[in-house]
Design goal:
By secondary structure, the chain is of the alpha/beta class. The chain is 45% helix and 16% strand. It contains 21 helices and 19 strands. The strands form six sheets. It has a six-stranded parallel beta sheet, with helices on both faces. A five-stranded parallel beta sheet has the order 10-9-11-12-13, with helices on both faces.
C-alpha cells in the first residue's frame, strides 16, 4: 500500500490539524480518551506541557495566548476534566485572550445512557466561550480545528472549545483523503477583514485631542496584545499628552517616562476633559468612566476591536478597530496637522508636579527600615532587583488586591507585556503555579530566563553563579501574602531568612496547585 493510502485515526488527524495551523505548544492533563491525541501531537513537534490539574493548565494556556498573540491550547479528558478546564477558558474570555480548550467526550452512541464521564460539554462551555463545536465524524475534524483556532484570535480574542467524542477519535481515514481535507479547511479560513476606521472619525479624534485643555491617553492590555507600543510612544511624544496605563498596560511606555501619570492617577482621571482610551474597557478597573472618580462631562474617545463594547459604553466617539492600526492612522492625521502641549503646559505641569509629590512620599516610606518588615519592605527589594536586571525585563506575576494595588505604584515596568496579575476577572491563583516553579528553580541553583510565557516550555535555562545575591520572589495567596526572599546573605540574616526555611513550605505547596 502506498504511503499516501495509509490509514490514520482521529487522534492523528487532530494532531495534524493543530500542527498545520501552527500550534507548537499544548497544555493539559492526559487520560482516557485523549492520551493518544497528546502522543500524536508530540510526534509532530507539538510540545506537551503536563500539569496535575486542568485549572492550572488552563490559566497557563490563557496567559500563553496573551503573551504570544497565538491561541493557547488546553487539552483535557472528558467530564470532570472539561469542568476543571472551564476556569482557564472563562479567564481567557474575560481578559480577551486567545485560547482553545480541547476535550474528549463519551461515545456518541452511549450518550444519555450514563456513559463514563458523560456530560453535555457543548452546553457546559457555552457561557464561557465565544465559539464551540463538536466533531461528529472524522471528516469534520480539520474544519472544526481550523475554525476554533481562527475564532479564538479574531475580533476580540477569547476562549473557544473543541469537542471530540471517543468514537470519532477511533474512526479512520486514508492519509491522502486527510491531506485533502486539511487543504480544504485551510483554504476556507481567510484572514478576517480588518475594520477600517473612517477618515472622518480619525479627524474628529485628532480635533478633540487638539482642542482639549486637559487631555489624557489611557491604555490597557488590549493595546499590549495588539503590540501597539511603538504607535503609542509616537502619539504621546508627538502630542505631549500625559498617559495612564491600566495595571497590565504598564510597560507599553516606561513607568519612568516624564509624561507618565500613574503616580497622579486621581488627578489625571478626575480633571481630564478628553480621554483617549485605547484597548481598555470602561469597567470596574476604570470606575466605569463615571463621576466622581472621573471628571463630569469628560469626552471619551474609545478605541476597541469590538463594536459591541463601544455600543455598550456609549462614548463621545467610538473607533472600532485594532489598537495599533487605529493609532497609526491617528498619528498620520496629527503629523499632517501637528500640535504639542509642551512641558510648560499647565495641565502637564500639574500632572508632573503631583506625580513627583506622590513619588517623594512613597520613597520616604520605602526608605524606612522596619523590623519586622512591613508590606513595603519586600516590594522595594523586588523593585530594585527588577531594575538591576535591565533588559530583557523579567515578567512580574502579582496577585492579591493589596499586592496589586501597592505593586502598581511601587514596581516599575519599562517593557511591554511584563506584568501578569489577576486580570479583568480578578482571578486569584492564576499565576501561583508559575511563581512556585520559579522559586523551585532558584532554590535548586538555576536561574529562569523568561522568554515569552510563564516559564512553561518557552524558557532558556542558564546557570548563574550570582543567582543567590539578586533573585527574589513574591508569592501571593489572595490577600494573604507570603514573602520568600533569596538575596544577599546579610539581608537574609537581618530578616531571619534562609533557603532551608523556605524549602519545606515550597515542597508542601507544589503538589497542591500544579
Amino acid at each position: 500500500m502506498a504511503e499516501s493510502d495509509c490509514e490514520i485515526d482521529g487522534n492523528q488527524l487532530i494532531a495534524k490539524s493543530l500542527a498545520r495551523f501552527g500550534v507548537d505548544c499544548m497544555f493539559g492533563v492526559v487520560g482516557i480518551p485523549v492520551t493518544s491525541l497528546a502522543n500524536r501531537a508530540v510526534s509532530l513537534g507539538v510540545r506537551f506541557l503536563a500539569f496535575h490539574n486542568e485549572q492550572s493548565a488552563g490559566y497557563a494556556a490563557s496567559a500563553y495566548g496573551y503573551l504570544t498573540g497565538r491561541p493557547g491550547v488546553l487539552l483535557t479528558v472528558s467530564g470532570p476534566g472539561c469542568v476543571h478546564g472551564l476556569a482557564g477558558l472563562a479567564n481567557a474570555m474575560a481578559n480577551g485572550w486567545p485560547m482553545v480548550m480541547i476535550s474528549g467526550s463519551c461515545d456518541q452512541n452511549d450518550f444519555g445512557r450514563g456513559d463514563f464521564q458523560e456530560l453535555d460539554q457543548i452546553a457546559a462551555v457555552k457561557p464561557f466561550s465565544k465559539f464551540s463545536v463538536k466533531a461528529k465524524a472524522i471528516k469534520e475534524i480539520p474544519d472544526c480545528v481550523f475554525q476554533a483556532l481562527a475564532h479564538a484570535g479574531s475580533g476580540r480574542p477569547g476562549g473557544c472549545y473543541l469537542d471530540f467524542p471517543s468514537d470519532v477519535l477511533h474512526q479512520t481515514i486514508s492519509d491522502s483523503e486527510a491531506e485533502g481535507l486539511l487543504g480544504s479547511a485551510a483554504e476556507r479560513i481567510r484572514e478576517e477583514k480588518v475594520v477600517s476606521v473612517e477618515n472622518s472619525q480619525i479627524e474628529e479624534a485628532a480635533s478633540l485631542l487638539r482642542h482639549a485643555e486637559r487631555p489624557l491617553i489611557v491604555f490597557g492590555k488590549g493595546a499590549a496584545f495588539s503590540r501597539a507600543e511603538s504607535a503609542l510612544t509616537k502619539l504621546v511624544e508627538t502630542t505631549g499628552i500625559p498617559f495612564l496605563p491600566t495595571p497590565m498596560g504598564k510597560g507599553l511606555l516606561p513607568d519612568t517616562h516624564d509624561l507618565a501619570a500613574t503616580a497622579a492617577r486621581s488627578l489625571a482621571i478626575g480633571k481630564c476633559d478628553v480621554a483617549l482610551v485605547v484597548g481598555a474597557r470602561l469597567n470596574w478597573l476604570l470606575h466605569f468612566g463615571d463621576p466622581p472618580k472621573w471628571s463630569k462631562g469628560v469626552k471619551f474617545i474609545l478605541v476597541d476591536v469590538c463594536r459591541e463594547e463601544i455600543e455598550l459604553r456609549k462614548p463621545h466617539l467610538g473607533l472600532v478597530g485594532d489598537a495599533k492600526l487605529v493609532l497609526e492612522k491617528l498619528n498620520k492625521q496629527i503629523k499632517d496637522d501637528p500640535f504639542c502641549l509642551g512641558r510648560s503646559h499647565p495641565w502637564v505641569e500639574a500632572i508632573s508636579r503631583k506625580a513627583k509629590e506622590n513619588v517623594s512620599k512613597l520613597e520616604a516610606q520605602l526608605a524606612k527600615q522596619v523590623v519586622p518588615f512591613n508590606f513595603l519592605t519586600p516590594m522595594k527589594i523586588i523593585r530594585d532587583a527588577i531594575c538591576a536586571l535591565g533588559s530583557p525585563a523579567p515578567i512580574l506575576v502579582s496577585e492579591g488586591a493589596n499586592t496589586m494595588d501597592v505593586g502598581r505604584a511601587v514596581l516599575v515596568q519599562t517593557e511591554p507585556r511584563t506584568r501578569l496579575d489577576a486580570g479583568t476577572w480578578g482571578t486569584m491563583g492564576s499565576v501561583l503555579v508559575t511563581a512556585l516553579q520559579l522559586l523551585w528553580l532558584l532554590l535548586t541553583g538555576l536561574w529562569l530566563r523568561w522568554k515569552e510565557i510563564l516559564g512553561l516550555g518557552l524558557v532558556q535555562w542558564k546557570l548563574r553563579h550570582w543567582f543567590v545575591t539578586s533573585c527574589l520572589l513574591l508569592l501571593l495567596f489572595s490577600t494573604m501574602v507570603v514573602y520568600m526572599v533569596v538575596t544577599e546573605e546579610a539581608q537574609m540574616k537581618s530578616m531571619g531568612l534562609t533557603k532551608m526555611t523556605l524549602l519545606p513550605l515550597l515542597l508542601s505547596l507544589v503538589p497542591l496547585i500544579t
